[in-house]
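Field reference: sequence -> structure
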Amino acid sequence: MPQPELHIDAHTALIVVDVQNDFLPGGALAVTQGDDIIPVINRIAPRFQNVVITQDWHPAGHLSFASSHPGYDHYQHIDMPYGPQCLWPDHCVQGSTGAELAESLAIPHARLILRKGIHRDIDSYSAFLEADRTTPTGLLAWLQAQHIQQVVIVGLATDFCVAWTAIDAAQAGLVTWVMEDACRAIDIDGSLHQATTTMKEAGVTIVTSCSLH
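Structure field:
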C-alpha cells in the first residue's frame, strides 16, 4: 500500500524531539540505535522553514527519577498526583553533558528550542502539555503565532515523548505526521505497539521520509 504524500509549506513545522546525549548509545537512558536517526533528521530539516527542537531539561532530584524514591528500581511504576509514573534513571539533568543536544545534530536554522520537564514535581513527555495534562509548555501558542497548521514529528523516543507530542498535536487540531525512520523507541512491555495504536486512533499519520514531497 503506497504511503500518503507529505507536502510541506510555510504553514508546516518540523518538531525534533529530545535528540540528546542521554538518549543516545552510551547515555543514561539510551535508546537502541538512537543515533541512527540523526542523519535522516539532518537530511530533511533544511526542507522546513519552521523547526522546533525540544530538550528534556530536568532539575536534579526530579520526581520521575528512581533515585528520588528509595526502595524503587528503574522502570517501576508509582502513583503520582497526576497519575502513574514510570521511574527512570537520572537523565537530562539541567546543565549536564547528557542534557545537551547531540553534537552531530545540524539544524542551525531552528527557530525555537523548547525545554520541558523543568518542574521538579511533574514529568513532561509531551512538548505541548506536562504530565498533569493541564500545564502548557507554550509550544501550541508559539505554533499558532507562526500560523502553523501541520507538524511533522521526529526524534526520541517513539513510544514516549514522540507519541505524546503527536497525540497532543492532533488533539489541538494540527495535521500531524510522525516520520518513523527518523524515530526510535524504548519499547518497554509492548509500549511501542500501544503508542502506535494510540497515535493512529488520535488521527496521527505515520510515514517514512520517502513520503516527503
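Note: The chain is about 20% helix and 20% strand.
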